[in-house]
Amino acid sequence: MIRAVIFDLDGTLLDRSTSLYHFVVDQYTRIIHNAKSIGMERYTNRFIELDHRGYVWKDRVYQELIKEFELPLDWNELLADYTSGFSKHAVPFPNTHEVLERLKNYGFKLGIITNGFGDFQSSNIEALGIRKYFEVILISEIEGIRKPDPAIFLRAAERMGVQPQACVYVGDHPGMTLLRARTRE
After folding, report:
1. Which of 41, 55, 68, 108 is least enclosed by beta carbons within 10 angstroms?
2. Helices 75-85 and 58-69 meet at what angle, rounded to 10?
């Protein structure tokens, strides 16, 4: 019997695509446009392409953008703006709060496992207003383990006090769904 639901953050609870788009437009308006005349759509599309759905950290994205567009800016400052400002644009998927509330009311224990940096992901969770729903939140930098390592899933189950076979994982990456079957063996 399922007793716990563990969620991914980016692309599952956090509408990362929309959040990223809004952040990049804001950063373009505040910083990029003032530094050099580049079309917003061109810049935004290139940023999103280089970001590769979050799998490329922004230091590399900004370095490439500065090179390609010959921006007279420091990538470290752009990165600092990203890490401190992204969460201001964080939006959940529609009905996220309602779904989490309903799961809690049905008696499920809830958890989050997310790869990423501790402060950055914590800021996003706070911005979404969802921390109150979760018994455990595991962020890879803090835990020292990254998905898809089964150990992080087992750690979440243990901290919630449930057997791994009583957990389901909800995420946007198909490879993670196979993990549940492997941790049962």
Report:
1. 55
2. 130
